[in-house]
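User: Can you help me understand a structure? I only have the sequence.
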Amino acid sequence: MSEQFTHLDSAGHARMVDVTAKQPTVRAATASGRVECGPSVVAALRSGDVPKGDVLAVARIAGIAAAKRTPELLPLAHVIGVHGVVVDLDLTDDGVTITATVRTADRTGVEMEALTAVSVAALAVVDMVKGLDKSVRIADVQLEAKSGGRSGDWRRDA
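Assistant: Let's start by predicting it. Here is the structure, written out as tokens:
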């Protein structure tokens, strides 16, 4: 069983994969997601009239902080050196598009860190605008690309 599922031991119990013997390599991952908002929320975001303040700045910082705290949220994620995080938020006609890229030079990848950054940035947007419209929703959080490590490079097909 442990050969098929790396996070299970021979008895089927959850375990953290031992990466001690792996050599650190440069790795990166990019994830994306959206917060879908109605026209009134988009207008408030564009004009800067959201009562709670600068939504995009708060969401950017929340995403960066979340990437660094991923092992606190995901019990089997490794504590690694997060050496770079970029969180971009773009206003669109139907909401906010979020992209996060996380980089490291460590023994394991940063896919979970990139996905966590996008997810928490999206939650921060929702938190900041929920007083304007409770129907906003988070959509399409997904891994876009990863590089480095034993499995090599991967990119989502367009």
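Now, to help you interpret it: The CA atoms of residues 126 and 134 lie 8 Å apart. Residues 111-129 form the longest helix (19 residues). Let me know which part you'd like to focus on.
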